[in-house]
Structures are given as C-alpha cells and as structure tokens.
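Onboarding guide, step 5: your first structure request.
Type a short instruction followed by the sequence, for example:

Predict the 3D structure of this protein.
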Amino acid sequence: NIYTISLSDLEKLEAYDIEIVSYKGIKNILRWLKRQIPFISAVVIAIVITIILSNFCFEVNIVHSDKNIRTLLEDELYDHGIRPFHLKKSFKEIQEIKEHIKKTYPSDIEWLEIIDDGMKYTVRVEERIITPIPEKKDFCNVISKKDATIMGYTSSKGQPVVSENDLVKKGDLLISGEIKFNEETKSHTCAEGTVYGNTWYRVAISIPLDHTKTDYTGKKKKNLAVELGTKYIRFFKVHFENYEVEKKVLFKFGSFAIYKEQIKETTISQEKYTKEEAIEVAKAEAKKKLKTNLGDDATILAEKVLQSEDYNSIISIEFFYSIKEIISETVIEYTKKSEELE
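The system replies with structure tokens like these:
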C-alpha cells in the first residue's frame, strides 16, 4: 500500500520494509532543484558570459567610402580605446571622444556618430568638403601631351591654333589663352577645350602555348563551414577531385564565422594553343593592356601584327595600334608685369 506521511512521523517509525516513493512540498522542490543543478548552472554561466560579452566591443565598423578618412578614424578610435576585444565606453565617454576627434580634425570631419550596436560600434562620418577659393590665374593654354595627328577639337574659351590633320609634338600649343587680333594681343583668358588626336603604340605580349584549361561539369553541392581564427572546418566532406567554392557569410562574431558554401565541380585539362589561337589570346591581352593605360575614352582605329616569334613553347607577338584619344591638357601661364594689359 502507498501512504502519505510527514517527515517527523516517518522518523518515529521503526519498520524496515518502508520504501519512500516520492516527496511532496519543500522537500520535493529541493530534490527537483538538485537534479536541475547542471542545467541551472549552465543557464547562470550563459547569462554571466552574455553580460560580460555585452560590455566588450568585438568589431568597429566605419562607414565611409574614402579610405583615408577610414584610416584616420581607425587610428584615432584605437588611441581612445575604441577597438576590438576591449571594454565598451560609457555614453559620456563616447560623446567626449566624438568632440575631441571633431576638434582635432575640423577641416576633415563635418559630422561624426558612434553608435553602440550590440557587441560592435558602427561609426558614421560625413567628410567636410571645403570649396577652394579659385586661384586667380593670368591665363591658361591647352597643349598636347603626346605626339599625334589632330583629328578634331572642341573649344569653349581661347583661340585654337591647330587644324584637323596637323601633326603636333608633345608640348605643342593647341588652344591659346592669348586672344590676338592682327597679331596684337588683346586679352588673356584661361583656354578651355578638348583636342582629339591619332596616336600610335606598340604592344608586346608573350603567351605560353601549353596552358591549363578549367571547365565546369555542372555538378554542384551545398555545404556549411566554420571558421575560427586560422582554422576552417567543413561540416560535410567534399568528394569532388577538382572544384571551386563560392561562400556567403551566415554569421560572424569576432574571429568566429559560419559560411554557406556552393561547391562547383571542375575538370582541369592541359591543352596547347595553335599559333592562330595564341595570336587571338594575345590580341585580347594587348587590348586590355591598352585600355588600362589609356582609359575607356580611347578608341582603337587599326590593329596589326608586326612580328611574332615562337621559342621554347612561348609565342611572343608585337602589335601595332592606331588610337584615337584625348591628347590635350591645360597648363597655367603667367604674364610679365610689363606685358599685363590695362
């Protein structure tokens, strides 16, 4: 039989075949708490750790496109103790730091805000743009910055001194800031205009005939990975022999991060260009090189292979290019006092 009895009465009994099935009241609560000690301890530790971590800064994110401004603020904030893995500052300290930085760099910073964003600081800054007072110039000339044949021009100020198809050398005058009439200087201005010229370039490119080719098979796998410091661990093994990985950050906390990966299988093969294929590859490289040096405004008018040499599985090709590009630049000139016009 099962009976309910108080602890004081239980102690008075002398029977030896009594088995305690369960407790009620305070005793039962204490026994339950004793069984939950590991869980309760874990919760308490987690709360303590959370409270401690919430008082630390693990990341400082400066929002601005100018690298120089970001570097300036990084150095200043670091000197004031706002840096990763350090205790966070009080609201009053943050305000004092902001004011100090703005007073130190009045010509660089218009507005600064340091936002306490959980376990990181987000710093937003607005650069002070100071419009320079235009320097008073005597006059300007537009000159050629390279040898060329004139292909055309536009002029909003000044007096053009060249015509289409004229040959010019580097430094030659194109648009004059001296306004003349009947060979007599009447006034000075800052010449403005754009002059287009036909220029010529030689570009040498070397291409190995033997090369490695990478192709995608179309097979893809998704994976998860964890990064902790210098260690990078994938959840699932990759069975592709050759592959490329695209990854996206799912979670980041200090040096700890979780990534979602897209793994694409590839095949790698060793191939050899024919001479014609190598020339086409070299042409693409030569054009890319020209665009890098000349900019997007330059236009290729003509292209020619001057010579090609094949030696030790490497083909060297020299190209000739005829280019249409802007050849003008503005230079400031200064008149002598005796030449100044009333």
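Each response can be followed by summary notes, for example: Residues 337-342 have pLDDT under 50 and may be disordered.
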